[in-house]
Amino acid sequence: MLRRITPPREPKSGARQEADAAPAPETTQVLRRVNAPRSGEPDSTPRPTVPRPAGEDRPAQTSGAGPAGAAAPSSPAAARAARAARAAGTAAAGAGAGAGAGAQAAKAAAGSATGAAAASAASAASAVGAGTTSHNASEASTTALPATDGQTAGGNGKGKGKKNKRPKRTGWRRIIPTWRMVLGTFFVGVLLLVGLFFVGYSLVKIPPANAFATKQSNVYLYADGSQLARDGEVNRENVTLAQVSKDAQHAVLAAEDRDFYTESAVDPKAMLRAGWNTATGKGKQSGSTITQQYVKNYYLAQEQTVTRKAKEFFIAIKLDQNKSKDEILEGYLNTSYFGRNAYGIQAASQAYYGRDASDLDPARAAYLAALVNAPSEYDVVAHPENRKAAVARWNYVLDGMVTKGWLSESKRAGMKFPMPKEQTISTGMSGQRGYLVEAVKQYLTSNNIIDSDHLTAGGYRITTTIQKDRQDAFVKAVDDQLMSKLDKKNRKADTFVRAGGASVDPKTGKVVAMYGGIDYVKQYTNGATRGDFQVGSTFKPFVFTSAVQNGSTTQDGRAITPNTVYDGTNQRPVQGWNGGAYAPENEDQKSYGPITVRKATDLSVNAVYAQMAVDVTPAKVKQTAVDLGVPSDTPDLQPYPSIALGTATASVLDMAEAYATLANHGKHGTYTLVEKITKDGTDEVKLPEQPVKQAVSREAADTTTSVLQSVVENGTATAAQAAGRPAAGKTGTAESDTAAWFAGYTPDLATVVSVMGQDPVTAKHQPLYGALGQARMNGGGPPTQIWAQYTRDALQGKPASDFDLELQQGADQVQEPPATSTAQPGTDGGRNDGGTTATPTTGGATATPTGGATTGGGTPTDGGTGTTGGTPTDGGTATDGGATTGGDTTGGGATTGGGTTDGGGTTDGGATTGGGTTGGGTPGGGTTGTDTGAGGFPGT
């Protein structure tokens, strides 16, 4: 505390006793710090008076007025300066100015004094100005503090001032940390990381191995709840590292961790790189070493969490200290998954090549090593469409072996890709069970319902949409119409035959049946889901649907309808395409001349549909196909005129989904294979919603259906009539006849069947010439026959229903090209030079009513002979409004060339204004004044 004190009186002596004896004026009183006596300082007792030489001035003193050892003032001027300093300090203290004012006064006093006395006075004044009191010190033990301004006594009276303060940071500089802050943060971070490392290292222990023996199976059920299949069995056979060939060891190292034997157990740099790539959208990547992968496979679960990754990190470090590199590599080879339900290198070697791991050569070992990265994708037998990616990965592994010196360049140069064998599965997956289970798994993972790791862990009860009775009917139809007719011993082409099929309920999108192959144990590849065969002419209906959907017209401005006339000449160059010359061939090089869209669909005329694709624009055709259900990433689904001919390689299941959209009047719902999923018997897994949208207009879908009905009634798919109910569909053939297709539907069921040719050894696509003893495998043959038998049996007991169609406006009107001649649409190009272009084959009326049931020409539905034949089923008016008399003609159908002579009157069939019908035939072109006969439209 601060107290005001009065300096004690001292003994008087000499001539100036009276002056010195006077008490100090009030202004000279000072504030002193009450403090304990310092070492070397006087205590509170008055010091004895020291005699001074005669003639020397003696100023008044106060006990403890200056620092110990300070010289007393040596002259009246110095004394006055000292007193002035004390007075200034006292005044400053009384005014509350603090230490700063006293210091300034002391400086002023020191400036007017000279020598050691002046400096001493300044020091004393500073001490007085800065003084404070202490609670524990006695009043008698007071002493002055040093000056606060840092001045020191000097012989010349000059002192050194305190240092200037650092200027404050202003503006944007305030947000930038200083180097002291950065350095401090760095050291704190390092210490924190080190601390966390030691904490984690001490807390995380190496756990016991997770036992696959305790894993659960997944149970798959039919839609009715009966068991379809059970999986989850672990296929593994552990081997020692000595039982694995050196080539196999090196291949795995080259694929997964080339510096395994020289690096540490963890690779922080790779982990950071993988994390960065994942965060920046470059895909999930692994930054794990082989040791870390082994820890994940053997000790931990597969979930992708930070906790699991942290445990993996510390366990790997500890494991690297407790086990040798050879032991870790051995464990990794025995726990890695290679696909085909094979865990470990030994099981994988048997599953893919039927040999032990000790017998693996560099080529086969490199392929197995490539599988570890993506087991499902790189199985080139199960997924032929991914062969390119698998071979690229195989080359990467071999190149790595060369780089590390494990394989000579000369040996590497001569290697060919080692095609694996078909998978042999346990009998639990035999027959169709394996195909169905794999299709369900693929559906679950591709739709992000359950990932592959959790499926592998098991415990799921999955109810599928597969209906057992329809599934059995599908298998029986394939066996009856195809497999039972094969003679593999005497006909080599029969060894190439494969089949695939899928059936979808159009109203729900549920897959009710699927045919994958003869036996999952014998043929691993699923014929229903594989996507490596061209769909052929089954794609053509999508072109027409797109034309109606987009209101497209021909190059000369005519609306595209079922009766629009095109030029069906073989190798006719398409018009209006700027991407280069394109002139497709028709099947068997046939030319058809002018022909309607309906008849061109019946006969699958390539020249017509290639031109139609250009008229619509290929990009719009592609979009319509995607809207109907064909995946946008389907290989070779490109916006070129050739898209119309079915160069895309969609799967059977994809095509069934698209045709189901047509059957459902243009409403599309993504197909589904799963009804319900539960985990551990109780927890229900949420399934994605199945929204239904109007993909194309009802008129576009229904008009396409009317055209496809004609294919069944009069075209290449007449065998489909054996189903015994109204049907629509389209046949197709892949390039080089490597596959034959039929895609068809009734109002209740959409089904697609494909018969494919594949070499059982090399997996290469093979033509089906000579298969089943036939010169050619056509879509109208076994595929359509299988479809008909299956559809009949699958819908047995269900009343037949007709298509409820709403056709596009003008669908029943003929759209002819501008008349450059009097030619009418011909049948096969035999005569297209005007006049009657076709002779009736039976003597009756052979022309087709434009809106009638016999939409493709040929004999009318009800007969073509004069009484009732030829009556249209959905309209009785001629294309220009003239009334037809149906069977009122007296000549029946016994006309030559169609019955019209000049396009005006009829021979004996009632008056019309635009070309009457003779025996129910079609008007001769639908316009007044045409002098060609109706019998040539469009013919048989």
Give your account of this protein's structure.
The chain is built from 24 helices and 19 strands. Strands 5-4-8-14-15 form a 5-stranded mixed sheet, covered by helices on one side. Strands 10-9-19-18-17 form a 5-stranded antiparallel sheet, sandwiched between helices. Strand 17 and strand 18 (739-745) form a beta hairpin. Helix 6 (246-256) packs parallel to helix 12 (362-371). The longest helix is centred in the first third of the chain and has 25 residues, at 179-203. It is globular and about 125 Å long. Mean pLDDT is 74; it is low at 11-30, 38-74, 88-160 and 821-940.
Main structural class:
alpha+beta
Oligomeric state of the chains? single chain
The coarse silhouette is globular
Strand runs, count: 19
Radius of gyration: 51 Å
Q: Give the averaged pLDDT, no decimals.
A: 74
Please summarize the sheet with the most strands.
5 strands, mixed
Helical fraction = 25-40%
Strand content: 5-15%
| First-residue to last-residue Cα separation | 127 Å
User: Which spans have pLDDT < 50 for at least 5 consecutive residues?
Assistant: 11-30, 38-74, 88-160, 821-940
H/I helix tally: 24
The neighbouring-strand order within the major sheet is 5-4-8-14-15
